[in-house]
Structures are given as C-alpha cells and as structure tokens.
Design a protein that fits this description.
This protein has 202 residues and is an all-alpha fold. It has nine helices and no strands. Belongs to the sigma-70 factor family. ECF subfamily.
C-alpha cells in the first residue's frame, strides 16, 4: 500500500493528522484553484475550508476512486460553482430587499423590535454555543482565544504550546464548522425579510 492509499485510509478513519496533511500539502493549491472561479481570496479560502470540513464530517462514507488531489480539486470545483449559483440568487434577493428598505426606513426599527427577530437572535446564540461545545477541545480553545480574547495566532500558539500552523488549521476548521452549522439560519432570515417586503411597512 502506497503513501496516498494510507492517507486516504486515515481520512476515512477520521484521523486528525490526515486532515492536517491536506491543509499542509494541498490547501494553497486548492485555494488558487478556487480563486479561478470566485475571484475572491477570502471566498476561495472559505470554500476550501468547507470542502475539507465536509470530507471530515462525512468521513465514514468517504469514497475516493481517483487520486486524492483529483478528488479534492473536483470537490472544490463543484463547491465553487454552487457558491456562484447561490451568490447570484442572493444578489437578486438583496437588491429587492435594499430597494424596498429605501422606500421606508421605519422597517429597520420594526426588524429590531420584531418578536420573530429576537427569537431568531436567541436561537442563533444558542446554536453558536452548541456548535462550539461540540468542537474538538483544541479547535474550540483556538477559536475562543482568537474571537473572544482577541489574541493573535502567535499568541495563541504560545499559550497552547502548539505551532502557528496548528493554530491556523484549527481556526479554519472552527470557521468551517460554524458556517456549516449556521447556514440554516441564513435561509430562515431571507424568507422572513421577503415576507415583510410584501407588507405595508415597505
């Protein structure tokens, strides 16, 4: 069995070192590939992070019949195209919402005081806490030190006695996990705004 087959076997087993290997040896090339589609460095990094997280979260059912690089590039390509399709739809919706809001600035006050808005905010806060609680300990600690304690990567590395690359790996993993777990709440907010657009408030 060659090295790549061993690596794929470790990915299927959900071994963290295998996923760190992907970040160390494939991440930059995959980001460059994603950028060719989305033309945005941050979005490209987000897509690659999401692809790697998706592989990790579904590792029990992972099937790779091609080379690992080929599999990753195909996944990044498909995710990039899906992102562009969603983004085009979102731009249309955002344009409609913005146009409607410009007609009546009172809508902002309404949204801030809406019981449904407050309910969504509370549920979102609980979902974030639940997602953090279910992250691996090191991933959660890296995220909390970065976001809640405002620490730089090198400071986190010193505090946790790990390398800066390890901090970057766990930060990307945490952000991918949050995006994946919170995507349903974005899908809830958009229809909510569209319903309001049909009311007299607009």
């Amino acid at each position: 069995m060659n090295k790549e087959q061993d690596l794929i076997k470790d990915l299927i087993a959900g071994k963290e070192d295998a996923y760190k290997y992907i970040y160390d040896h494939h991440y930059q090339a995959l980001c460059t590939y994603a950028y060719q589609y989305v033309k945005d460095v941050y979005i490209a990094e987000m897509i690659v992070g999401d692809v790697i997280f998706s592989i990790w979260s579904k590792h029990d059912n992972l099937i790779i019949n091609s080379s690992l690089r080929g599999y990753l590039m195909s996944a990044v390509k498909n995710t990039s195209i899906n992102y562009l399709i969603r983004e085009k739809k979102m731009e249309i919706i955002k344009s409609e919402i913005q146009s409607s809001m410009e007609k009546n600035t009172d809508v902002l006050t309404y949204l801030e005081n809406s019981p449904l808005t407050k309910l969504i905010e509370r549920e979102l806060d609980l979902k974030i806490k639940d997602t953090l609680a279910n992250m691996p300990d090191l991933t959660r600690r890296v995220f909390e030190l970065s976001r809640f304690s405002d620490m730089k990567y090198h400071e986190i590395a010193q505090t946790l006695d790990v390398s800066v690359d390890t901090v970057k790996y766990h930060m990307k993993a945490a952000l991918s996990r949050l995006r994946n777990d919170l995507k349903d709440y974005i899908n809830v907010l958009i229809p909510f705004l569209l319903i309001l657009m049909k009311k007299d408030l607009f």
